[in-house]
Specification:
heterodimer; A: 158 residues; B: 561 residues; alpha+beta; globular
Chain lengths: 158, 561
């Protein structure tokens, strides 16, 4: 990322940290580290290129992880914590877009692609198998051992 | 050498000329009708890259003012992985130009018989081999250098390399139907064109700075050049396809839905759908920004969720495809080939569950893996037995089998590699644990049965940077203690320090330490500790996969008949 981006990121963090004491005054509830990790892995590290807050080794990310824990300790649930970050950074902070509105498109189209693909294959298979349902020639009688051997040879011979 | 935009274009052009030379040497004599056209296409593509080198991205531009010690390489790239990764990746990328050239030659000459397919297949495996190698080395680099504890981030640039891999894989499978049944001519040409277009698109994505990403170390105005060339390539290919439409529209006929043909068709649907998903996910932020003016991110959580079902389906097909009969699978054939593997799959699912694995995804993946592994084993055992019956010894029997049917068994080996990788990926997602703490000197933290003792900090001056190293002793009570030395490197040309990861690889557990903040007097430091599970399986699987691909490249050694 550019230096300008990094500066912007730090500024944004400064704002966040100023807002933090408000949350910290509420009674602390014990939090689960795995919950914090899961939330952090859904958030984009703002100074990195494409890493989550959970994964990034950058300082900024470790401060954001601390922020996640802080909000959890203040009694917020996962949705609220995520919303907190979305309010401040915009939708961009979420690594997986929400399944609503325009963003639904990115979730639905892959499914549509698979369904259409399967549909085409089903159609083709139907067309191609039509009229080929009867075995072409009745195989002459072979002794089973011989047939077995031929079959194996054919199968192996790719 | 191959740093930044200019360097990569030079590398591309260099690789492409290498391939062109090979093509000249190999096919000047034996593919007389296709050769001139294929060569022209190669040279056309090559001249595009040379054009890019001369106009928008001259590689040997002088810097003004001249920096005292050179501009310096991004320190993250100072690694052997980074010497080999771009070479392998670009050998893969450029390698797909050869199949494309032959496809165009076939379209142009109208010689759409199977000559071009036969010529193209091995070239495609070569390109596929290098692309896979490049992806794997990239993952390894990401794992041991970037310090985020992962190997694949679904970064746009990784996606750019992954898409042609997916369509290339699809082609390698569907081409078998054309060889056997003279069907799918149109589709195969389409896949070749798609793969080549995706390599161009990937380069455009990486090198134009259009999407900010880990690898986008460069920015430039090169996008227009690439997009226009991409459009030109696609239009030309489409025009040729339309021109030969009637010749390509082969009449297909199948005997039964339950046959290898339909398995391969399904395999193609899954692979192309996966490629589409990756493509759409990668460009979606651009679409969203252009249409709504809202920036969104599409990252790992999205790609994992959408692609996992597709990959599971692919693994299942991987078990069915190679053993089901061509044309029509009889009940007998199905029973012979799949009774045992299916049983093994079901039993192993039960065993994994009994062992305490509760993640549905993990159980499902492992059971499918066992099923596919069983099909491979079954086939190998049967074929070997057949040879043993012909009075061969065991070792020469297996060896001869592998060499004589190198394509089939190379393919199997690749499949096994993929299985091992799948186990590694699943395991590392399901069971890796991590935590982050601040320790004073002499203090100990524990994670997953390991205790990490912080022994202190040490500062040192290296040739081109300043380094602060933390020493940690790790034990789990049973094995010998290991010392890990994660560090932070301060480079004069970089604003922020670079984390230097230290790790210990293991078959099951990888220990992985990243040094965070530390007190200036060295009394305490923050450290991110990870115990990553089964990650090594990915590298082992990668090794198997590349061996398999290499085996498949070997010239056929059909016995004289």
């Amino acid at each position: 990322m550019t230096r300008a981006g990094r500066v912007l990121g730090s500024l944004a963090l400064a704002v966040l940290l100023l807002a933090a004491p408000v949350a910290a005054q509420q009674p602390a509830t014990p939090i689960s580290e795995s919950e914090a990790y899961e939330i952090a892995s859904q958030l984009r590290c703002v100074v990195c290129q494409n890493l989550s807050v959970a994964d990034s080794p950058s300082e900024m990310a470790s401060q954001m992880r601390e922020l996640v824990r802080e909000r959890l300790r203040a009694g917020e649930n996962r949705e609220q914590v995520m919303q907190y970050f979305v309010d401040r950074y915009g939708e961009w902070i979420l690594l997986a877009p929400r399944r609503s509105g325009f963003n639904l498109l990115v979730w639905v189209l892959p499914v549509v692609a698979v369904v259409v693909g399967l549909g085409i294959v089903a159609l083709l298979l139907r067309r191609w198998t039509r009229g080929a349902s009867s075995p072409a020639v009745a195989a002459p009688a072979l002794d089973p051992a011989m047939r077995e051997r031929i079959r194996r040879e054919v199968e192996r011979d790719e | 050498m191959w740093g930044a935009l200019e360097g990569s274009i030079v590398l591309w052009a260099w690789m492409l000329s290498l391939y062109t030379l090979l093509l000249i040497l190999r096919h000047r004599e034996n593919a007389r009708d296709l050769y001139p056209w294929a060569l022209s296409v190669m040279l056309g593509v090559l001249s595009f890259f040379v054009l890019v080198m001369t106009l928008p991205a001259p590689p040997f531009e002088r810097l003004t003012p001249i920096p005292a010690n050179g501009r310096g390489l991004n320190p993250l790239l100072e690694d052997t992985g980074m010497i080999t990764h771009p070479v392998a990746l670009y050998l893969g990328f450029t390698g797909f130009t050869v199949p494309f050239a032959f496809a165009m030659a076939a379209l142009a000459t109208g010689r759409l018989s199977d000559a071009w397919i036969a010529t193209t297949r091995r070239w495609t495996i070569v390109a596929w081999y290098f692309l896979s190698l490049g992806l794997l080395i990239g993952g390894w680099w990401s794992y041991h250098v970037l310090g985020w504890g992962g190997y694949w981030a679904w970064d746009p640039v990784e996606n750019a390399a992954f898409m042609p891999w997916l369509t290339g894989t699809a082609f390698l499978h569907s081409v078998m139907i054309q060889e056997r049944r003279r069907m799918l001519k149109l589709w195969n040409v389409g896949l070749v064109v798609m793969t080549f277009a995706l390599t161009l698109f990937g380069t455009f994505l990486t090198r134009s700075g259009v999407i900010a990403s880990v690898h986008a170390f460069t920015q430039g105005t090169i996008g227009v050049f690439f997009l226009s060339f991409l459009a030109l390539v696609v239009l030309l290919a489409l025009a040729l396809l339309a021109f030969r439409w009637d010749d390509l529209r082969g009449q297909g006929s199948l005997d039964s839905v339950i046959s290898r043909e339909s398995t391969f068709l399904l395999n193609n649907v899954m692979l192309v759908a996966a490629a589409f998903t990756v493509f759409f996910g990668t460009v979606f932020p651009l679409v969203s920004e252009a249409l709504r003016g809202v920036k969104v991110s599409v990252g790992a959580p999205f790609f994992n969720q959408v692609n996992v079902p597709l990959f599971l389906a692919l693994i299942f097909l991987m078990g069915v495809g190679p053993l089901i009969a061509w044309r029509r699978a009889s009940v007998d054939n199905l029973k012979r080939n799949f009774l045992w593997p299916v049983l093994i799959g079901i039993v192993s699912a039960a065993v994994f569950f009994a062992l305490g694995i509760r993640s549905t995804l993990a159980v499902l993946t492992f059971a499918l893996t066992m099923f596919v592994a069983a099909t491979v084993a079954l086939d190998l055992v049967r074929a070997t037995r057949a040879r043993l019956r012909m009075q061969e010894r065991l070792i020469p029997a297996v060896g001869g089998l592998l060499l004589r049917h190198n394509r089939r068994y190379g393919g199997f080996l690749v499949h096994v590699g993929i299985l091992v990788i799948a186990v590694g990926v699943t395991g590392s997602h399901a069971w890796s644990v991590q935590t982050e703490t601040t320790l004073k000197t002499g203090e100990t933290a524990t994670l997953a049965g390991y205790s990490f003792r912080f022994d202190g900090l040490r500062a040192s001056e290296e040739s081109n940077h300043f380094k602060v190293t933390g020493a940690f002793t790790v034990t789990n009570g049973t094995t010998r203690a290991v010392t890990l030395l994660p560090a932070k490197k301060f480079y004069p040309q970089e604003q922020s320090p670079i984390a230097y990861v230290d790790y210990r690889l293991g078959l099951v557990d990888d220990l992985y330490l990243v040094l965070g903040d530390f007190a200036r007097d060295g009394s305490q430091a923050t450290v991110k500790m990870q115990v990553n599970r089964l990650v090594s399986w990915i590298w082992i699987g990668g090794l198997i996969l590349t061996l398999g691909a290499a085996l498949a490249i070997l010239p056929d050694r059909k016995p004289a008949r």
